[in-house]
């Protein structure tokens, strides 16, 4: 029982403007939450059922979690988040109860969002002997809970994965995670936006050209670009402990060794 207390209601402060790029995803999610409230009649007339759940998929470090938090914050929804693997590790033997408890809390806090990060853990656990049965049972309780929620004014489920291929098809049926949204790696314009956001509070040398850096960071995820800015700052200090600004040289230096995690197969 003590472990159960760990699922807290969160109040994320992330805003849409904290996220570079992804304008299509932002727009679609806003509509999914706002239309059932403001355009209920139109939706009904056009035969559109508001979704109860959305699956965000795409490579790691490309803002799935940020997007879920911004949606909650900007649409005034309470936010509960759970990582798939936690359901097995933290709540050993009481995973199903944990799932019920999450939905209970979410209903009590409605309108709200439950964010299941790394949802693929449920499916991959099924394959292994020990956690296998557990994975099956957790999935079943998740499906039961999802089938029971009201879409309008109620609880919306957002799930995230970088392995959409292993997600159990039962989870994607209508009324469950029926909408799929691809959250891809940042293109050049998005990379420039991310750089702008991340360097807003950094003292930059006058010759630092974010447009140029955006061009040379092809293949980097959002998280890697954020890390690059931090490393540039650290490198500046390693050269001069009292550095006043981060210069083009610092960026050039860290760019040479920068990780570029976006691979071909991540692009859909
Ligand atoms: P994972 O699959 O690893 O959970 P994710 O897709 O959920 O990854 P986030 O956790 O949202 O990714 O992003 C990780 C970090 O990378 C963020 O906290 C943020 O600092 C940075 N980041 C990633 N994408 C963007 C973006 N588009 N704009 C601004 N920051 C970003």
TrEMBL record:
MF term (GO), any: ATP hydrolysis activity
Q: Which residues form the AAA+ ATPase domain?
A: 50-187
User: How is this protein named in the record?
Assistant: YALI0E06655p
GO annotation (BP), single: response to xenobiotic stimulus
Write out the entry's keywords from A to Z.
Answer: ATP-binding, Nucleotide-binding, Repeat
Which domain of life does the UniProt lineage start with?
Eukaryota
- Specify first residue, last residue and whole-protein length for the fragment: 495 to 762 of 774
Q: Give the GO cellular component terms, alphabetically.
A: cytoplasm; preribosome, large subunit precursor
């Amino acid at each position: 029982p003590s472990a159960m207390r760990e699922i807290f209601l969160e109040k994320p402060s992330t805003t849409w403007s904290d996220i570079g790029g992804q304008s299509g995803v932002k727009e679609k999610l806003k509509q999914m939450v706002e239309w059932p409230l403001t355009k209920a009649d139109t939706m009904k007339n056009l035969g559109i059922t508001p979704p109860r759940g959305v699956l965000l998929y795409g490579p790691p470090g490309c803002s799935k979690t940020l997007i879920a938090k911004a949606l909650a914050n900007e649409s005034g929804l309470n936010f509960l988040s759970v990582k798939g693997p936690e359901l097995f590790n933290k709540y050993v033997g009481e995973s199903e109860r944990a799932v019920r408890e999450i939905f209970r809390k979410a209903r009590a806090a409605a309108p709200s969002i439950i964010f299941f990060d790394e949802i693929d853990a449920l499916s991959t656990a099924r394959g292994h002997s020990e956690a296998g049965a557990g994975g099956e049972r957790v999935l079943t309780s998740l499906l039961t809970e999802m089938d029971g929620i009201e879409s309008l004014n109620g609880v919306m489920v957002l799930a995230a994965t970088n392995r959409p291929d292993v997600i159990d098809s039962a989870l994607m049926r209508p009324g469950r995670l029926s909408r799929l949204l691809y959250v891809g790696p940042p293109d050049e314009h998005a990379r420039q936006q991310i750089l702008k956001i991340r360097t807003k509070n950094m003292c930059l040398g006058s010759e630092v050209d974010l447009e140029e850096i955006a061009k040379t960071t092809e293949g980097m995820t959002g998280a890697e670009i954020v890390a690059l800015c931090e490393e540039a700052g650290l490198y500046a200090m390693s050269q001069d402990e009292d550095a006043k600004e981060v210069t083009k040289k610092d960026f050039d230096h860290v760019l040479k060794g920068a990780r570029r995690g976006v691979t071909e197969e991540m692009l859909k």
